[in-house]
Every structure is written in C-alpha cells, then in structure tokens.
Amino acid sequence: MTPPPVRVDHLVTSGTFSLDGGTWEVDNNVWLIGDDHEVYVIDAAHDADAIADAVGGRRLLGIISTHGHDDHIDAAPALAERTGAPILLHPEDEVLWRMRHPDRAPDKPLADGDVLTVAGTRLRVLHTPGHSPGAVCLYAPALTTVFSGDTLFQGGPGATGRSYSSFPTIIESIRERLLTLPPETVVRTGHGDSTTVGDEAPHLEEWIARGH
Question: Ramachandran region of residue 20, left (φ > 0), alpha (ψ -120 to 50) or beta?
C-alpha cells in the first residue's frame, strides 16, 4: 500500500507586527507540511484556532519558527498548549522571542544543518541571518521547495531597517544559502506570494545597489 503523499497546506492569518516602538497591520503565511497523519507548522502567526483547525486530527510534530519577530510567533504558545507540540527556534532569536513571550521559552533549539523529518520528507534547517540574527529557512529538496520566512521574498530580501537586522548579512545569506539552490526551487515566503530561486537570482545586484 502506497503511503499517503506529503503535502503543503497554506493559511493566511492577520494581526500586527510590533518592534522598535511601532506597530503595523500584517498578513502572514502559515505553512503546514505533512501527510494525513503527522505535520509540522511553520510560523504560528496570529490565530491558534485557525492553525489548529488546519492541523485537524494529525499529530503536530513541532511548531517551527523561522525567526522571533512577534507576528511569526504570537500564536505559538497557545498552539503548543493545545497540541503538546514543541516550539522550535534558533537561539540567536531568543532576545526577540522574549519581547513577546517573556514567561514562556521555546522548547527546542534549531541549528544550521539540522534535519527534521515528516511523512518521510526531510526538512533541512538553513541558518540565514540578516532579517534577524537567528532567522532560518527550511529546505525540502524532495518537494523542490524552501520555506524562506522573511529572508527572501518575491522582489527582494526581507526588511533590515529595524533592530537586530543587517542588510549586508541578509545579502550574504541569500547569496550563499538560497540562490545556490536549484533554480526551480519554489520559495514559500512569510508574507505575500511565492516565487522561485530562478526568478529571484538575476536581481541580486539590483537589490545590493538599491540597499534594501
């Protein structure tokens, strides 16, 4: 009997992002990767109920945080409490995490090169600092896709104008870690539309020239 195929489910949730004294309305992409039995959530943003509904009766293996900005983690503790799933975050973003959740630490660290497996599919952790110190992307070669968080979008890098961010660092991360992936790799972003490595790679020098 053929095992059920791994699939990627997608939610868009709405809320706010706050940092450096400002607050902005945002829509976030929440990604779920798994099969009919088990799943990972990538970025538990804004609406724990909606995300739990999307998980359904599946076993939630973990809540992966691509970085510690509050719009990507605000619903993580509530989802963890409902499901018993651990929250995973790169330790270099714990300073950002604590701004939103001072009394609830992440459960497990993410490190560059870690491999998480769901439904027989491997997710490789790529540390891609710049948007934040502990930003990571999740590369699933079998699905020809990378979950880029706020590191790479359709049209350029994630924002680097606020605390704990660095434009030269995000450019290095994109150049060395993402644009080296196969051109057909689908980039599933933290906000907005997906793109591909091949569509974005030719524009790197333009981004460097404009400085964002």
Answer: left
State phi, psi for 171 to the nearest 5 degrees. Answer: -65, -45
With contact defined as beta carbons under 8 Å apart, do 69 and 96 qualify?
yes
In angstroms, the CA 57 to CA 2 distance is 21
- In a 3-state reduction of DSSP, which class is residue 42? strand
Contact between 123 and 144 (Cβ < 8 Å): no
**What residue ranges of the chain have pLDDT lower than 70?**
1-4
Which domains, ranges and CATH numbers included, belong to the chain?
Answer: 7-210 (3.60.15.10)
Q: Are 168 and 211 in contact (CB under 8 A)?
A: no
* Residue tagged 């538990």 (tokens): 44
Whole-model pTM? 0.97
